[in-house]
Write a structure and sequence with these properties.
With 172 residues, this protein is of the alpha+beta class. It has 5 helices and 8 strands. It has an 8-stranded antiparallel β-sheet, with helices on one face. The longest helix has 15 residues, at 142-156.
Length: 172
């Protein structure tokens, strides 16, 4: 890779990437705790996690409090579809009690040494099944996807204070 930051926009997917000066393990732990996800949200919809549960594997379901123009305040279930410790984590949102709608959020991590990691964040709606809502996708653009990685870098950066550390570190 010749650039430290990039965005790819395809007809039904987005991907952004950049190098973060943080160990891959710290990044994966941060992403595995849904209580951290609102800090990374650039859509303005994610309010916070509905529980203290930490993601431990494929098949886990975590619930997020959401607010958007279509449904107002509500909760979404997120079904973990990718879980490779230190490598990748991803989920597919769904209405409570329903199967996922066919869009996914996935974080891919590639260690570049002890304290540097290439982070790729992908939003894919190529299998989205709610045809009436398809016209409203994507819910964010490439710039916002890149900004979510920037927020991750800031949360894990060397200037963070103890109060800014991820929830997982405090519950271990």
């Amino acid at each position: 890779m010749t650039r430290d930051r990039w965005v790819r926009e395809n007809p039904r997917s987005l991907e952004a990437g950049r190098v973060i000066d943080a160990p891959v393990g710290d990044i994966f732990r941060f992403l595995s705790d849904p209580r951290n996800h609102a800090r990374l949200d650039t859509s303005g919809m994610v309010r916070g996690a509905a529980s203290d549960a930490v993601i431990t594997g494929v098949g886990d379901v975590f619930v997020m409090n959401i607010c958007n123009e279509f449904k107002g305040e509500h909760q979404d279930e997120n079904h973990v579809v990718t879980f490779e410790p230190g490598r990748a984590i991803g989920w597919a949102p769904a209405e409570p009690g329903a199967v996922p709608a066919g869009h996914t959020w996935t974080w891919h991590l590639e260690p570049l040494g002890a304290d540097r990691t290439l982070v790729r964040h992908a939003y894919d709606w190529s299998r989205f099944t709610h045809l009436a809502m398809l016209q409203h996708l994507p819910v964010i653009d490439g710039r916002q996807l890149q900004e979510s990685i920037d927020r991750l870098a800031a949360a894990l950066g060397p200037a963070r204070t103890q109060d800014q550390t991820d929830h997982t570190e405090r519950t271990r």
